[in-house]
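Input set for joint prediction.
Command: fold jointly, output tokens.
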Amino acid sequence: MKKSADIILLQKMIDEVDNIVFFGGAGVSTESGLKDFRSVDGLYNLNYKYPPEEILSHDFFYENPYEFYRFYKDKILVEGIKPNIAHYQLAKMEQIGKLKGLITQNIDNLHYLAGSKNVIELHGSIMHNHCISCNKYFAGYDFILKNNHLPLCDECHNLIKPDVVLYGESLNENNIIKAIELISNAKMLIVGGSSLSVYPAAGFVSYFKGKYLVVINKTHLPSLQKVTLEINEPIGEVFSKIDL
Ligand SMILES: NC(=O)c1ccc[n+]([C@@H]2O[C@H](COP(=O)([O-])OP(=O)(O)OC[C@H]3O[C@@H](n4cnc5c(N)ncnc54)[C@H](O)[C@@H]3O)[C@@H](O)[C@H]2O)c1
Ligand SMILES: [Zn+2]
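tokens >
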């Protein structure tokens, strides 16, 4: 396979550096079949009754739980989704000791499914849920998908809420600390599949003070300064050309 100059450069950097950190978003999972938010065919451009940003907000969850769960089951809990080559290559980079950690804004659990270990899920995960009243824990999401009604706690009959950070909610403090620490100590930071428009998550990238800042994103990211290499191509395709 003929490799472009960009891929050859990326390969050189990965070969050289042993302290790489990855910061990613919804674009990492589009090649698995999940929609992102801001692409032309992303969730923002669907004709739903409310914009996704409103449905996936704290207030909306409590005021319209039926509508929230209708959207959540239809668009977020997509069945049969598997990790793609980007997820697998990132897991491999960690196994061989190059990648020190992976920070994701995704809630889809795909990095864990691919075998990654040090994953910081800034916006939580569809794999965990709690009762809003007695705080009982519920694992996974099959019980939500199979339920035609609202998911209710079997102890106190109150509503169950997924452990995902909704708009209007704050990020877990420990995750913030770990993400900032990873990024500040990294020698190379790869930002991939994120529009860098959801804060505070996107702001963490500015803590990077290492050698190589690499962007792998379908569209150009104008907000990032001092980028060493930017590849505006699908991240799965890019990672499939890297030898580890
Ligand atoms: N899979 C998921 O868990 C999922 C899906 C949708 C949204 N979200 C949430 O929505 C928020 C959206 O912010 P965001 O920045 O993550 O997503 P975003 O939708 O704002 O941006 C996605 C970016 O990825 C790029 N992209 C799309 N497909 C790509 C590909 N194959 N290769 C490379 N780049 C690609 C797009 O050009 C875009 O710039 C996040 O907070 C996230 O939690 C999560
Ligand atoms: Zn309960």
